[in-house]
Amino acid sequence: MTTEVGSETDVKKEPEKDPEVQQQTEQPEEPADHTASTSADQPQEQIQSGQAESDQEAAVSPEPSSPPAAGTQKKEKGISRFLPPWLKRQKSQSQDKPSESSAPPKQESVELKEEEEETSQPKEEVDAGGAAAASTEQTEEVKEVREEVQTEEKEKEKEEEESIGSADTQPVREEKEGELEVEEKEEEKKEEEKKEEGKKEEEKKEEGKKEEKQLIQQEASVLSTHKVNKKMKMVVCHVTLLDGSQFSCEVEKRTKGQYLFFQVCEHLNLLEKDYFGLSFKDHAEQRCWLDITKEIKRQIRNSQWQFTFSVKFYPPDPSQLTEDITRYLLCLQLRQDISSGRLPCSFVTHALLGSYTLQAELGDHDPDEHRLDYISDFQFAPNQTKELEEKVVELHKSHRGMTPAQADTQFLENAKKLSMYGVDLHHAKDSEGVDIMLGVCANGLLIYKDRLRINRFAWPKILKISYKRSNFYIKIRPGEAEQFESTVGFKLPNHRAAKRVWKVCVEHHTFFRLVSPEHPTKTKFLTLGSKFRYSGRTQAQTRQASSLIDRPAPNFQRSSSKRLSRSLDGAPVVSVSDYSQAAGAGENGPALELNSDSKSPQVEVMEEPNVDAATSITSEMAFEQTDGTGAPERKDLDKTQEDVLKHQASISELKRSFMEARPEPRPSQWDKHLSGSPVTSLRLQAHGSLEEELTSLFLSKACFSGLSGSCSTTAVPAEVPQETPPRPGTDSRDTSKNAEVKPEVDDQPEVIEVVEETVVIEEIVKAKPKSPAPEASIPVETEVKEERSLSSDSESEEEAEYHAQPPSTSISIQQIKEEPEEEQEAELTQQAPPSVIESQPSAEAAEPGPAAEEEKAAERTHEPLPTTDEAPNGHALQAEAPPTAEEEEPHIVNGSASRVEAEHLPQVICCSEPPVVKTEMVTISDTFAAQKTEISTKEVPIVHTETKTITYEAAQLDGNGDGEPGVLMTAQTITSESLCTTTTTHITKTLKGGQSETRIEKRIVITGDSDIDHDQALAQAIKEAKEQHPDMSVTRVVVHKETELAEDED
Amino acid sequence: MMSGFGRFTHAVVRTVPRSLAKEALRTGCLEVDLLKAQEEHDKYVSVLKHRLGLEVLELPADEALPDCVFVEDAAVVCGDTALITRPGAESRRKETEAMKAALTELGLSIVEMTDESATLDGGDVLFTGREFFVGLSKRTNQRGAEILADAFKDYAVSTIPVQDRLHLKSFCSMAGPGLIAIGSSEAAQKALKIMQQMSDHKYDKLTLPDDLAANCVYMNLPGKGHVLLHCTPEEFPESAKVFEKLKDHMLIPVSNQEKVKVDGALTCCSVLINRKKNI
Question: Which residues of this UniProt protein bind substrate (chain B) (predicted)?
Answer without folding.
Answer: 25, 67, 72-73, 92, 139, 262
